[in-house]
Each structure stands twice: as C-alpha cells, then as structure tokens.
Design a protein that fits this description.
two-stranded antiparallel ribbon; 7 helices; mainly alpha
C-alpha cells in the first residue's frame, strides 16, 4: 500500500511540476510575443498582451480537441501558431545581444509548441500532437483538392447504367434503344385504342 501511495504522490508531484513549468513557459512566450508585436504608437501595448493571451487560449483549445477538425479550425489554429512563433522570434531577436537567427528561431519554436501539449497532458491526461495534426490537416487538404473534378470535365454519376451488351450489328447497346422502342410501342397501342373508340 505504501508503494502505491508513493507512486501516486510522485505522479502528482510530476504533474504539478509540469503544470507550473508550462505556465512559466507560457508567460515567457507571451512576453516575447508582446515585444514582437512591437507597435511604436502609444496606448497599444495592451494589444500585444491581449493577442498573446488569445494565442494561448486557442492553442490550449486546439490541443484539447479530439477527433477530426474542420478546415476553419485548422486554418485558424495554424494561423495562431504562425503568428505566435513569428512574434516570439522577433521578440527574442530584439532581446538577443548578438546577431543570428538560429537561436531565436529554435527558442521561439520551443516556447510556442512545447507548453500547451504538456499542460493539457498533465492537467487532463490527453496526449496531444499539434505538429501531427498540422501534417494530417495538410494531407487532408491535398487529398480533397486532388479528388475534386476539374472544371469542364464531366463525370458519370452512374457508370453502371452506361454498360451494355453488343447487339447483332456489333454496336454497344446501352439500354436506351430498348427503352425508346418500348415507348414507341406504348404510343402505338395508345393510338390504336383511341382509334378503336372513335370507330364505335
């Protein structure tokens, strides 16, 4: 029983440490994103914080969602990630002493991609994969565009109805000729019936 309690306490401590660490990483990311927003006009500083908070909320929701996402959710989520990574990159570049783009890029990717999946996993037990979802969404868009018929190309709605057998003349009988003949026969019988009524 003591071993089970120790394991439970250890797991709880690890989860709490992950939650606290990811919250700190979110705050650092929001700070650099606010600096990367970089509006020089007075009174607009709150917008950088507001957009940073919005990015965190949408990224948490993106990582919390399960199953297939619609195209709108996918585009909005990827746009939010793109904005957050870019503003983090700009903010880190401004704070960096020397020149170079490798460290700001790697640091901004870590700050922007790492916190939310680990936070959701530690808090709700849901394993999320935002990069995998992005690749899956891109594949779905590519597949849907490749299967869409090109303009001007007519497709058969029911290819089975166009299949037929060769008649005695060697032509493909699709079944339309027999239908036409049947219609003509019905019309001839109807005329004969009307003519017989007129005679009486």
């Amino acid at each position: 029983m003591s071993n089970d309690n120790n394991k439970r306490l250890y797991n709880m401590a690890v989860r709490m440490a992950v939650i606290v660490g990811t919250l700190v990483a979110m705050y650092i990311s929001a700070t650099f994103s606010k600096d990367g927003f970089a509006f020089e006009m007075g009174g607009y500083g709150w917008m950088g914080w507001a957009l940073s908070a919005l990015c965190i909320v949408i990224q948490l929701y993106w990582n919390r969602m399960e199953g297939d996402k619609g195209l709108t959710i996918y585009v909005v989520g990827m746009s939010i990630y793109g904005y957050s990574i870019y503003t983090n990159f700009v903010g880190v570049s401004i704070a960096q002493v020397g020149d170079g783009w490798v460290f700001p890029l790697l640091f901004s990717l870590i700050l922007d991609i790492l916190p939310e999946p680990f936070f959701v996993m530690a808090l709700a037990g849901i394993v999320s994969d935002p990069l995998g979802k992005a690749v899956e969404g891109m594949g779905r868009i590519i597949d849907s565009s490749s299967t869409t018929p090109r303009s001007g190309v007519k497709t058969r709605k029911n290819p089975i109805s166009y299949q037929g057998k060769k008649n005695t003349k060697g032509y493909i009988d699709t079944g339309f000729s027999s239908q036409i003949e049947a219609a003509r026969e019905r019309e001839r019988l109807e005329r004969a019936r009307k003519a017989s009524k007129i005679q009486y």
